[in-house]
Amino acid sequence: MGKRKRESAAAAKEASKNIAFAKLNNCPTSPRKMRLVADQVRGEEVNKALAILKFSPKEASRKLEKLLMSAISNWQAKNEEADVEKASLFVKEIKVDGGKMLKRLRPAPQGRAHRIRKRSNHVTLVLGANNLEN
To answer: 36, 38, 12, 13: which is closest to 24 by C-alpha?
Structure first.
């Protein structure tokens, strides 16, 4: 391995210590409904984001709350010696993409049929740390 490649790999490894992510695949909620909740927590600190998700009446907020807790535990596993409160974690990026769609037919009058599309989504949540004090 060359010197330049080794240095860039070391820099990438050091930068990845400040972030952690979690993914939720094939969540049976439409992406539009999930994006409404995801937009509320984008850029917020972790404690505030957890409070927003806990007291939101939407069903998607329960799934995002669980995903956020998973991302926090992933960050703790990566940075065992660091404290979560001192690191001041925040939601750096949250992305909701469309997943696979279940296609069904519903009978309609006069021998016709209407299509029903049951949508799902994929959510990627990335946490960032403002200051990492060991």
So the answer is: 38
Instruction: Evaluate if residue 134 carries a pLDDT over 70.
Output: no
* Max Cα-Cα span within the chain: 73
Give 29's pLDDT tier (boundaries 50, 70, 90): very high
Let me know: does 94 contact 63? Beta carbons within 8 Å: no
Q: Supply the pLDDT for residue 59.
A: 96
Helix (H, G, I), strand (E, B) or coil at 97: strand
H runs (alpha helix) in 17-58:
31-41, 46-54
User: In angstroms, rounded to a whole number, what is the distance separating the alpha carbons of residues 127 and 101?
Assistant: 28
In the chain the domains, ranked by start, together with CATH numbers, are 19-129 (3.90.470.10)
Place of tokens 């330049």: 4
Task: Give CA 47 to chain center in angstroms.
Answer: 15
